[in-house]
Amino acid sequence: MKTIAEIRQEIENKKTRSAWDKGVKEYALELLEDMENERKLARETDMAVYPATLEAELLNGAMNWKQFSWGGCSLVYDVQIAKRLCNASELKKTRNGERQPNANEQWLDVQTRALHQAENMIYACIHSIVINPA
Length: 134
Known about the structure:
Strand content: under 5%
Helix content: 55-70%
Number of strands: 2
Number of domains: 1
Distance between the termini: 11 Å
Largest sheet: 2 strands, antiparallel
């Protein structure tokens, strides 16, 4: 099994090119930090990450990523979300998040997609060790 620290290290070492990918990476690191802090508060010594319980542990009581995002468990201000996930031209187009990202979504919906991709990034790190042991 892979530990939180090993997953964090692998994610930190991932190369990202786009603002979106950098933002997703930042969400993944925050989710891992929150998971680690919760375990420390519960005085758990096992820092291994298990795929079967990963999503529930990352969601920390929320039913899904939409509830997590809209429930205030991550960034809550449109400007913060936009700055994390957008490149300079997108920020200009949305006036740094003051305007909605598109006709079908609000910024919290965009964050929901990014959080789901962050979860997938964490899963990919777990499975890379299982498939290719070090």
